[in-house]
Amino acid sequence: MSILNRLPRLARFSSVLHRENVSRFSTKTEEPAIPVNLLKDTYSANLQTKNGAIYDKKPFKIRLEAGKNYSWCLCGQSKSQPLCDGTHKNIFLKIQLRPIRFNVPETKEYWLCNCKQTSNRPFCDGTHKRPEIQEKVKR
């Protein structure tokens, strides 16, 4: 007769340890939650149907602070990408697109879209990986 059969508490403890070891070596990874614009319903600029000029074909990683308001450049002309610097206000450029105002729920690093084609403005949703985006020449 096994010692584990004689000591049921030890057997339960042994099976718990075994399960923890199995889960620790699991190949599944937890995907981070997709961020959303908390001000999406507040500002009408989010309703713009057009996308701006492609600034870059890869996203930009930036540390954002919770509760602080930001303006993401949608026109693609800002010199301080991915954030707006007011270039769209230049009357000679005749830019009709307006920046997307947003804030984030927690302070951490976020990936902001630089191709300006995302459907989850201002956050990257992987749209830049599409062949038609990669083939376009950035301005």
UniProtKB/TrEMBL annotation:
<dbReference type="InterPro" id="IPR042216">
    <property type="entry name" value="MitoNEET_CISD"/>
</dbReference>
<dbReference type="GO" id="GO:0005739">
    <property type="term" value="C:mitochondrion"/>
</dbReference>
<feature type="domain" description="Iron-binding zinc finger CDGSH type">
    <location>
        <begin position="97"/>
        <end position="134"/>
    </location>
</feature>
<dbReference type="InterPro" id="IPR052950">
    <property type="entry name" value="CISD"/>
</dbReference>
<keyword id="KW-0408">Iron</keyword>
<dbReference type="InterPro" id="IPR018967">
    <property type="entry name" value="FeS-contain_CDGSH-typ"/>
</dbReference>
<dbReference type="GO" id="GO:0051537">
    <property type="term" value="F:2 iron, 2 sulfur cluster binding"/>
</dbReference>
<dbReference type="GO" id="GO:0046872">
    <property type="term" value="F:metal ion binding"/>
</dbReference>
<keyword id="KW-0411">Iron-sulfur</keyword>
<protein>
    <recommendedName>
        <fullName>Iron-binding zinc finger CDGSH type domain-containing protein</fullName>
    </recommendedName>
</protein>
<keyword id="KW-0479">Metal-binding</keyword>
<keyword id="KW-0001">2Fe-2S</keyword>
<dbReference type="Pfam" id="PF09360">
    <property type="entry name" value="zf-CDGSH"/>
</dbReference>
<feature type="domain" description="Iron-binding zinc finger CDGSH type">
    <location>
        <begin position="57"/>
        <end position="94"/>
    </location>
</feature>
